[in-house]
Every structure is written in C-alpha cells, then in structure tokens.
Write a structure and sequence with these properties.
Elements: H1 2-15, E1 53-55, E2 96-102, H2 106-114, E3 120-123, E4 135-138, E5 141-144, H3 156-164, E6 168-170, E7 177-180, E8 183-185, H4 193-196, H5 201-225, H6 233-242, H7 249-253, H8 258-269, H9 280-291, E9 299-301, H10 306-315, E10 320-321, E11 324-331, E12 336-342, E13 345-356, H11 360-366, H12 372-379, E14 382-383, E15 386-393, E16 406-408, E17 416-419, E18 435-442, H13 444-449, H14 454-468, E19 476-484, E20 489-490, H15 499-503, E21 509-511, H16 521-538
Parallel strand pairs: 2-3, 2-13, 3-10, 7-16, 13-21
Antiparallel strand pairs: 1-19, 4-5, 6-9, 7-8, 11-12, 12-13, 14-20, 15-18, 15-19, 16-17, 17-18
Helix pairs in contact: 2-10, 2-16, 5-9
C-alpha cells in the first residue's frame, strides 16, 4: 500500500499546476450508467451559484491588467475542463461500503481524504463542494467568500496542506489595524492604540483598563488552550470551552463608553455572534487569534481557500456525489444505512461506518436514534449570519492598505476588511497592479443586510469603502456578494456543558465539524481526521475496495 501511495503521489505532483496560478471552479460530471447499483452513481456538476457579480467600468487600465469575466475569471486548472468519470466499477463489488461521509465541507473532505485508500463515498447535498470554504480565481489574485485563515505547521491543517501538496504562506500584514471615525491605526504595539485613536480622555482611560484585562485574559487563554502531554484532544477542547464559559463577553467586560464598545465589537462579530451572545472565553479567543500570530490561524492558501478542497476532490475523483441530499442515517447491526435523494430520485447506501460532517442543525435532523442529551446539545448550537463581498481592484500603484491584512471597521456597514492580496506582496520584487479585498458583515449587521438585494448591498459597501479609503474610488473593478444564512457556530454561555453529549460514542456513526470545538477550520479538519482515524483502526484487513489511479 505504501508503494502504491508513493506512485500515486508522484502522479499527483506531476498533474498539479503551479499553485501561484489560479484555477477555475472544479467541475466533475457523472458518468452515464444504469440507475441501479451505488457503484455507478455519478458525482459533481458545475455549480450555479446563488449570488450575483456586479461589474464596474474598467478603471485606470495599466500593464498586466485585463477585463475579467463575472463567471470565474481567466486562468483554468488543467483538470477542470476534463469530464471526470464516475466510480470505477469493480467485479463483485459488495453492496456494503467501508465508509459513507455525509457532507462535502472541510470536515467531511478531511475525513474522506484520511480514508482515501478505503471504499469511501462522500454525499454532498449542494452542487458544489467545500461548504463555507469558497474562493474564485482572478489571475493573479482571487476572491474569497468564506474561511480564509488556516493553521500552519504542527496543526492538523498543516498536515492536510502538506499531504495534498497545496501551498500556504504566513500572512505578512498587520492583523490588528482599526479604523475609528476618520483615522486608521495600523502597526506598532496594540498597547499604544489608546493614545493613537481619536478618543476622549475618559475613553482612553477606559480602553487602557479594558486592554490590560484583555491582555491578562489572552495570556491565560494561551496557557489553557495549549496541548498538554498525554492528554486527548477532547480534554483540551473541553478545558478551552470551559474557560470563562459561564458568562457572556459583554457580562465579563462590563459597562464601557460607546466608542470603546465599538472598537471591541467587530472582533467579536467575526464569530457571527455579538458580545451579548458569545461566551466570554470564546470572545477572548478571538483576541488571542489576532494578537498571537504564531499561535493562531495565520496562514493563507495561495490561490484561494478553495484550492484545498479542490485538491482533495481531485484525489477522490468519482467518489464525491453532489446533489445527494441525505434524509436519514440509521445504525443497524452490521453497519449504517444512509437514505438520500439524488436528482429527485430516492436511493440508499449501506456502509460499515458513517461520518456525519454536516452543521449541527442538519446532523440533528438526519441522524436517527440520537441519545436525548446529544439531540438537545445539537439543538443548542447557535449559528449567526454573514454577508460577504469579494472585491477585485484595479490600482496601478501602492495603496494605503498594502501593509494591512485585517482591518476592524467600527461604526460601518461591515465589521472587517481583509486584504486578500497581502500574502502575495512579499513574493514579488515590485508591487504588482491590482488587488483583492474581502469585506463582511457578521452578527446583527449581517442580519440587517440579508434583507437587502445585492445592488443595495454593493452601494452601501462601496460608499463605506470610498469613505474609508478615498484612494479606492474608481478602483473597484468587480464585486461579488455572498450570503451565509448560517455562518460560524459560536458558543453561548454554558456551551462547555454540552461537550460530553456531543463527543459521546454513537457506535458506527461519527460526528465531525467546526461546531465541536473552538478552532474554526482547524476544528473541522481535526474532527474529520480523528473520526476517520478511529474508523480506519476499526476496519480489519485491507480495504474492501481500494482506489488506485
């Protein structure tokens, strides 16, 4: 098996393009075959996204710029135009699969990747893979609409990136920039921000007091969240969730002046919740993410986050079945039965094990026979909305945001602005024309914007952007709006009390997803890999249907 994997990895290295070049959305089509028999089911088709691209006149065209299409841009991955065959039909293929993974998001794909040498099938309800990991290429940049920062070496994410040969790099720009009223403060020690932001004396003193408390809380969070020798991931996760887990961030913070509240609120809203909703320890964790570059999630995937999910799907060719909405996952004596609808046709699969890698509310709806406490725990998981916009810009010279990666934007229509192109700047001797930004509104801001149409959102966003950076006026070439009704799961006070019920054994059914922990994309990948690793240990003998290309 090792030699087979080495040969396959060599073939993948030869097939993969230069990761600096973008690629279009992954297209996998179903092969024609008889309707009966799970082995001939057809996977993935091109997505028709439910969002709209708004075009702007080309501004200040210069060398290296081009007019880009709203349907995916230029520059295609060589595999994207090839029709992918369905699963290989093997003589006497048993009806019982080794594993069925429900959900083609990051957690499900991580599980399927770990089990790629087994007979594994992935069922995805939508017509695209990746879940809330989504990006589109715009040569030489990309637009990002979901998860954008990842763990580096020494993390489960780092391992997955290395195994899939996907390039990632540390974010070089400032993570702690703030735009308050008419002033942007970026760079330098955050302890100096109270003296640099436009605040009254009372507000400065209040921000200093809050800053000291946050610094101490972040330091304690760092100690608590570190892995300890001999402990399990479950023990570490529970300990982290329990830290200041009995009250909301707003309760822990106490009354503060309005401008101090406004400064802190965008960082908490990155969770898709508000300070009044989010457990205090989880809110502190977001400041840890921002202030502890080496310990948090601070890596970007070169070419866009979708590169990672595309690479996994490339390896799992023929084993990802899109437009396959699972209705029921039921444990049986010898395995698991999965009933699903594919293109209006009801079908079912049987497997020795199942990994259910769907959001908590979907998991609760489809898994039959859940213990009562697990059912209640899944029902208690909260999700908040996001409205996201990816912007392609057409500048020909340096811009004031070049050295910034993350900018908190209090009192505006969006909570945060991210300079997606920032990771590319140190890779080029000269500043290349153009760029890419991502802005989003989470929590209550997102809820209000969801009621508006895309054109109105674009108008609101661009007006705020032009006010924030006057240099950007006339530079926005394209803007694409993405709505996430259910964005990130965020822990409310008392969330740690639910953890034992979420992690209890369900026999042949395993749960995976970012709602099971506090480290966002890292939790999704880690729980998917952990479920797959446990299943691999329980499967005896060689894979019943090992795929090798």
């Amino acid at each position: 098996m090792r030699r087979r994997r080495q040969r396959r990895d060599a073939r993948r290295r030869a097939a993969l393009p230069d990761h600096r070049a973008p690629r279009d959305r992954l297209v996998v089509r179903r092969r024609q075959g008889p309707r009966s028999g799970a082995a001939t089911r057809r996977p993935l088709a091109r997505r028709r996204d439910r969002r709209r691209a708004v075009r702007f006149p080309q501004a200040h065209s210069g060398p290296g710029q081009q007019r880009l299409r709203a349907d995916g841009g230029s520059g295609r991955h060589p595999q994207c135009d090839r029709l992918w065959p369905g699963p290989t039909v093997i003589a006497n293929r048993p009806e019982l699969h080794d594993v069925v993974v429900v959900g083609g998001g990051l957690a499900g794909l991580a599980a399927a990747w770990t089990l790629r040498d087994r007979d594994v099938i992935v069922l995805e309800a939508s017509d695209r893979i990746g879940g809330r990991v989504k990006s589109e290429p715009r040569d030489p940049y990309w637009l990002n609409f979901g998860a954008h920062v990842f763990g580096g070496p020494g993390t489960a994410t780092g391992r997955l990136l290395a195994e899939t040969l996907v390039e990632a790099a540390g974010v070089p720009g400032t993570l702690t920039a703030i735009a308050l009223n008419d002033r942007i403060v970026a760079g330098g020690r955050v302890e100096t921000y109270p003296m640099r932001l436009p605040l009254t004396l009372r507000e400065r003193l209040a921000l200093i007091r809050v800053g000291v408390r946050l610094r101490l809380a972040v330091a304690r969070y760092d100690r608590i969240s570190r892995a300890r020798e001999g402990e399990t991931d479950a023990e570490r996760t529970l300990r982290t969730l329990a830290y200041l887990g009995d009250r909301s961030f707003a309760e822990w913070l106490g009354p503060v002046p309005p401008d101090v509240d406004a400064i802190l609120r965008p960082t908490i809203a990155r969770s898709s919740g508000e300070p009044e909703d989010v457990a205090a320890g989880y809110g502190v964790g977001y400041f840890h993410l921002v202030w502890s570059r080496g310990r948090g999630l601070s890596f970007n995937v070169i070419g866009g986050s979708g590169r990672l999910t595309d690479a996994i799907a490339h390896e799992l060719e023929g084993r990802i079945w899109a437009r396959s909405r699972v209705e029921e996952v039921t444990s049986e004596d010898e395995g698991v039965r999965i009933r699903y609808i594919h293109d209006r046709e009801r079908s079912e699969l049987r497997a020795r094990y199942a990994v259910v890698a769907t959001p908590a509310y979907v998991t609760r709806a489809i898994v039959r026979g859940l213990p009562e406490e697990t059912d209640r725990a899944l029902a208690a998981i909260s999700y908040g909305p996001y409205v996201v916009a990816g912007l392609l810009t057409a500048e020909t010279s340096a811009m004031p945001w070049d050295a910034i990666y993350a900018l908190a934007t209090p009192k505006r229509s969006f909570n945060m602005l991210f300079n997606t192109a920032n990771v590319l700047r140190p890779r080029s001797a000269q500043r290349q024309p153009g760029g890419s930004l991502m802005i989003y509104s989470g929590g209550s801001l997102g809820t209000r914007l969801l009621e508006l149409d895309d054109e109105r959102i674009v108008s609101i966003y661009t007006n705020d952007l032009y006010d924030l950076f006057p240099e950007s006026r006339g530079m926005v070439r394209e803007i694409v709006v993405q709505r996430w009704l259910h964005g990130l799961p965020y822990p409310r006070p008392g969330r740690h009390l639910l953890q034992p019920a979420l992690e209890r054994s369900l026999g042949r059914v395993y749960l995976a997803g970012d709602y099971l922990g506090t480290w966002y994309t890292e939790t999704a990948i880690r729980t998917g890999m952990a479920a797959a690793g446990d299943i691999a240990g329980r499967l005896t003998g060689p894979g019943s249907n090992v795929h090798d290309r």
